[in-house]
Design a protein that fits this description.
Elements lengths: L12 H14 L6 H8 L3 H17 L4 E6 L2 E6 L4 H8 L9 H13 L2 E2 H8 L4 H9 L3 E6 L7 E5 L1 H6 L11 H8 L1
Antiparallel strand pairs: 1-2, 3-5, 4-5
Length: about 180
Amino acid sequence: MSEAVAQQPTRTPAELVALVEALIFVADEPVTSKVLAEVLDEDKGAIAAAVEQLQSEYEARDSGLQIREIAGGWQIATRTEFHEEVRKFLKTRPSAKLSLASLETLAVIAYKQPVTVPEILEIRGVQSATSIKTLLDKRLIVAKGRKEAVGRPIQYGTSKEFLIQFGLKDLNDLPSFEDFEDLVQ
């Protein structure tokens, strides 16, 4: 008796694009190409082509939405140039949930990671324990292990949640120091 092999029905490229769009839309967080390939039983090359096609379609029709690569996955998001109108519609204010001290601490961690509390103190010139706790509570940073030094201090780095909250594909999307210098001149 031979085993019946379940065969995936062959999809047209248009059907695959529609399925990828639907899955990205319903996902709670950015969905990776690997997950899409596994769920749809397709190879990653076909998924990449479908995502690229979706991005082109949204761009070609000047959509209010876009397919963005965030935190190693794909997400449907509103275009940044429409954020003020979207906030107004949703009756929300720009998020000001982090203090200046927490933002400074987060910036040090993002650019210098992995970094320890004493190293943050050296850069900022002030204690950062409260800011570290706030950033850990908001899951914007995570412990990345211990440094091989006296006292073996905990090293901190940014989390996937950090990438999602700030809409970054990866840490290479952080502005460069030269970008900051251009702003102050």
